[in-house]
Design a protein that fits this description.
Length: 334
């Protein structure tokens, strides 16, 4: 039986934009604008979308690196939405983050040993000798040699630095790891190694991932469920197999058509979305995707669609689209 480890309801993160002589707040950038979802213990939930859709902000807000503007965050049954820093401190060892850029996320003045042992010191776990032994074991787990301990981040390759970042993230044996584009800054030849490492760690350490990426093929490889984000909202959410076999939202369909096909004999009709992603400062009325959607009707411009289940109770497929059923019927006919 699955256990809910994370639940967020109507989560919002708006950043004030100031202007004028007295720097008054003139607008808000709605990076995350009313997201609700749950993550079950032991699963990998992939969050995918174009750059600027708010997926990284979502991850950082869940960890309270950013303070939410509204909504609730419940981690392991405890509401942490407005928890103070002292109250969050004992919980932070149970939720960690792997950052996109392994170079900027590691302190260049610290040796690898100090970087990996930093969580132990902050949470007062183990004595000095035990910390070193744990660091050595963590290096072995992520596939690095012991001689890396005395090195500095600039002496390692990008893949090695990301392995150090992973070792630091799993040092305190967390329950939830938010991986924010963990392979985006790496060479293609290294990306598969890091992905396989993350999958192995999930099994051996019983981890739960919120995996953020713009790469649909990567998300498909690692995820149990997939949430598609557009302009601060989730527009589609279902099992990974369902969303790739039968995407329901027009935005998801366009993303799927852009995935490169390894078989040169297979012809795929690529769908090009007109225009650019609208501004999160002043999003369109109704459905935020309607200016770029070829199916858009009047209702799409006036009423904001709710995320609703359009499949059976046993096979949930959540879509935020007024015309999802109609679009699905038209696709089946064609």
């Amino acid at each position: 039986m699955s256990t809910e480890i994370l639940k967020i309801e109507n989560l919002k993160t708006h950043f004030p934009i100031r202007g004028g002589i007295f720097s008054h707040v003139v607008a808000h950038l709605k990076a995350v604008d009313g997201i609700s979802l749950t993550v079950q213990k032991g699963e990998t939930l992939g969050v995918v979308g174009e750059s600027g859709c708010g997926k990284s902000t979502l991850g950082r807000t869940i960890l309270r690196l950013y303070n939410p503007t509204g909504g609730t965050i419940v981690f392991q049954g405890q509401n942490i939405t407005t928890a103070s820093r002292p109250a969050l401190r004992p919980l932070r060892r149970h939720m960690q983050m792997i950052f996109q850029d392994p170079f900027s996320s590691l302190n260049p003045r610290m040796t690898i040993e100090r970087i990996i042992c930093e969580p132990f010191r902050l949470h007062r776990v183990y004595d000095t000798s035990q910390q070193r032994n744990e660091a050595i074991q963590l290096l072995q787990v992520v596939g690095l040699r012991n001689d890396c301990l005395k090195k500095y981040p600039h002496e390692l390759s990008g893949g090695q630095r990301q392995r150090v970042g992973i070792a630091r993230a799993i040092a305190l044996k967390p329950q939830l790891i938010i991986a924010d584009e963990p392979i985006a800054a790496l060479d293609v030849s290294i990306q598969s190694q890091i992905l396989n490492l993350l999958r192995e760690l999930k099994q051996s350490l019983q981890l739960t991932y919120l995996f953020i990426s713009h790469d649909l093929s990567v998300v498909r490889y690692v995820s149990d469920r997939v949430a598609v984000m557009y302009l601060g909202k989730i527009v589609e959410l279902t099992d990974a197999s369902h969303i790739y076999e039968n995407p329901k939202h027009p935005y998801t369909q366009a993303l799927m058509s852009a995935i490169p096909q390894p078989d040169p004999t297979q012809t795929v009709k690529h769908e090009t979305l007109p225009g650019d992603v609208p501004s999160a400062v002043n999003p369109p009325s109704g459905c935020a995707f309607h200016p770029r959607c070829r199916y858009a009707q009047h209702i799409c411009t006036t009423q904001t669609p709710q995320l609703r289940n359009i499949a059976s109770k046993t096979k949930k497929h959540w879509v935020s689209c007024h015309l999802a059923e109609e679009i699905d019927r038209d696709r089946e006919k064609s």
